[in-house]
Design goal:
By secondary structure, the protein is of the alpha/beta class. The chain has 3 domains: 204 residues, P-loop containing nucleotide triphosphate hydrolases (Rossmann fold, 3-Layer(aba) Sandwich), CATH 3.40.50; 224 residues, 3-Layer(aba) Sandwich (Rossmann fold), CATH 3.40.50; 75 residues, Alpha-Beta Plaits (2-Layer Sandwich). Helices cover 38% and strands 15% of the residues. The chain starts with 9 loop residues before the first helix and ends in a 33-residue tail after the last strand. The C terminus is likely disordered.
């Protein structure tokens, strides 16, 4: 099937052709004819990256009366990033519709500027729920009583982000006879309730299976101790030298810290989160699209609207609480018929989350072993040799220097030249990986390697509970800093941390335990919450024996004493 057979008007077909689109995706093929021919409501379930914007955008544009410069359609999206992306796409699709005006309104930008644009008139408004409610609350600014079409894009994400009340407020001000189109990757109960309340016998179209992900994605997980997650992330990145992926973190603080650590360790990485201005976000995304950045570290919210082809890997540095969010994350790879890998780095207590996601999505995860030094170095060496084979050689420029090169290498055999050439580029990588430990958790919950396991020996570290966790924006470094203040203990004496969602465990050296417990009773607070620290039995969470915390392998950004170039080999 081609776009011309769907019944779209000539100006839109011309724009589609100029964009290089040839055949509609399954969701476009099924929805566009329905939306062009009927006046009813529609619920379309399709995974991220399947062309949903064109699926509702093309028929919407076909029905716009350009001579009538009043808002005829409203599109609600969960984030400003997605709102900007949708606006850009619609403007591209309507390139040959003279006079078409599509306006996006969202938080984080001047509302006065957006009001001035709205007052000039427009045909389509693309909005985030929060900013839309703000505009509706201002007198004589926003009138949507004549809106003909409302689109809820990524409805499941909007509800997960807590926009239920905002959506109810907005939809209640739209005319009852409007057309409502809902597009979502999953169909949780809240989405179904919205559809039932505001839609009239909607046509339901599903591409794939409800609440599941793309079939071209391999789902893998690596199980390590919580303290080894960052080391495992680096090990996996080194094992895939050509990685072009998105690393998902649970909190903004964690996103910033992981991105900074990767940059300091010589990786081509950067972070994207809600605190970035639109200009900063555009800069980061531009570098990601041209592959100056290989690993984009992001939160779920900030990643909405990312539309980048050829992403090879999605890495869950922290698993989401809801399977639907896992589906959205994994959908960033394997787009347009390509294949991809979704990797989750978990600790022992997150194994249940994997099983829950498997049950809800119908996907099966394969447990993988964090690659060791030999496997990583082998992959890096092959990548280096491929780079040598593919490098462009300008024979004319190098010709004058060849006699000097040949003279310098005289007496060396072919094998010696190859070995020395490889060693120039590869020695520091080999040195870094020479004594790296096994990060995998083996039988009994212990990590392999040569380090001494202290188990439950008398005189070993003392375990504590604290009533704060990831939900409070903490990660291991932040928790250690908090304990150094509340417990008056040096961070180097905190030898193990295990953060959960609502609480955490940690261990300190035995000589510091009494003082920490005494100082912790002084009534410290964190984010207006009273800090509660209690001593616990070291085996109370059945975690098995633990090794002492060590400095990260990349300490100080060095690998074997030599800083890696930002350009990955």
């Amino acid at each position: 099937m081609t776009f011309s057979s769907l019944g779209l008007p000539a100006p839109i077909l011309k724009a589609i052709d100029a964009l290089g689109f040839t055949e509609p995706t399954p969701v476009q093929e099924q929805t566009i004819p329905v939306l062009l021919e009927g006046d009813g409501d529609l619920v379309a379930l399709a995974q991220t990256g399947t062309g949903k914007t064109a699926a509702f955008g093309l028929p919407m544009l076909a029905q716009i009366e350009v001579m009538d410069l009043t808002p005829q359609a409203l599109i609600l999206s969960p984030t400003r990033e997605l709102a900007v992306q949708i606006t850009s796409d619609l403007q591209s699709y309507g390139k040959f519709m003279p006079g078409l005006r599509v306006i996006s309104v969202y938080g984080g930008a001047s509302i006065q500027t957006q009001i001035r644009e709205l007052q000039k008139g427009c045909h389509i408004i693309v909005a985030t729920p929060g900013r839309m409610v703000d505009l509706l609350s201002r007198k004589n600014i926003m009138d949507i009583s004549q809106i003909r079409t409302v689109v809820l894009d990524e409805a499941d994400v909007m509800l997960n982000m807590g926009f239920k009340e905002d959506l109810n407020r907005i939809l209640s001000e739209t005319p009852a006879e409007k057309r409502s189109w809902m597009f979502s990757a999953t169909m949780p109960q809240d989405v179904a309730r919205i559809a039932k309340k505001y839609m009239n016998n909607p046509v339901e179209i599903t591409t794939g299976t409800k609440n599941t992900g793309n079939e071209n994605i391999e789902h893998e997980f690596y199980m390590v101790h919580a303290r080894d997650k960052y080391a495992a992330l680096k090990r996996i990145a080194d094992f895939y030298p050509e990685i072009f992926g998105i690393v998902f973190c649970r909190t903004k603080i964690e996103t910033q810290q992981i991105a900074k650590a990767l940059i300091d360790d010589g990786y081509n990485a950067d972070a994207i989160h809600g605190d970035l201005t639109q200009a900063q976000r555009d800069n980061v995304m531009g570098r990601f699209r041209n592959r100056s950045i290989q690993m984009l570290v992001a939160t779920d919210v900030a990643a909405r609207g990312i539309d980048v082809d050829n992403v090879t890997h999605v890495v869950n540095y922290g698993l989401p609480d809801e399977p639907e969010n896992y589906t959205h994350r994994s959908g960033r790879t394997a787009r347009a018929g390509k294949s991809g890998i979704c990797i989750s780095i978990i600790h022992m207590h997150e194994k249940g989350k994997i099983q829950h996601i498997e049950k809800r999505t119908g996907k099966r995860f394969q447990q993988k072993q964090v690659p060791g030094a030999f496997e990583v170095c082998g992959k890096q060496l092959v990548a280096l040799m491929n780079k040598v084979r593919e490098v462009k050689v300008n024979s004319e420029d190098i010709a004058p220097f060849m006699p000097h090169i040949e003279a310098a290498l005289e007496g060396l055999s072919r094998e010696e030249i190859i070995q020395r050439f490889v060693s120039v580029e590869f020695n520091h990588f080999l040195d870094y990986y020479r004594n790296t430990p096994d990060l995998n958790i083996h039988q009994g919950g212990t990590r392999g390697g040569r380090e001494e396991q202290h188990g439950g020996r008398s005189g070993g570290p003392v375990k504590f509970f604290i009533n704060l966790g990831e939900r409070d924006g903490l990660d291991a470094p932040a928790l250690k800093h908090l304990l150094s203040v509340a417990g008056q203990v040096d961070q180097s004496d905190i030898v193990w941390t295990d953060l959960r969602n609502n609480y955490s465990f940690f261990e300190v050296r035995p000589e510091q335990a009494a003082g920490l417990l005494r100082n912790a009773k002084s009534g410290h607070t964190f984010m207006d919450r009273k800090v509660v620290i209690e001593q616990r039995d070291r085996q109370s969470d059945d975690r098995g024996s633990r090794e002492r915390t060590r400095r990260p392998a990349s300490g100080g950004g060095n690998r074997g004493g030599k800083k890696r170039d930002r350009k990955r080999w």
